[in-house]
Amino acid sequence: MSGVGTNGNTGALEVYDPAQNSWEALTPLPTPKDHIAVAVADGKLYVAGGRLGSFARNLPNHDVYDPDSGTWQAAVDLPTPRSGNSAASVNAQTYVFGGEAVANAFDETERFTPLTSVWESLPPLPAARHGLAAVAVGNLIYVLASGPTPGGSASALNEVFVVLPKAGP
To answer: Is the pTM of the predicted complex or chain greater than 0.85?
Structure first.
């Protein structure tokens, strides 16, 4: 999904069928961009942030793809426009971590709840960084690797974000 092609940013969305060993083009992302964060929640793709070719042109866009209808819908913008960020979902909520801009890497952690269409700021990452990966396993989100400064930097950080169980009704 998305990225940089020979003609600049692309909004391409493609799905691979291993049984047929073939790719199928789906409805492209509404805004072609790169360095996006993607998470899956309740069978939908949540795409947050990204940029237009450079971290000097970060976007707050937040779009949701429904594979059942093959359509995109704009959702409430990401509060912190950024690229090189990462996302994971737990309990049908999307968590977005880190990212970069011209002057700095981000330590922001924000959570989107589709039921209420609300973003919340959560405690920041212990270390600001971009180009990171986020993987959910149960109620844990592993936030891996990344760079501490904008551009081509790297680190071997591995932190675990614990998602507390939902409170009862």
So the answer is: yes
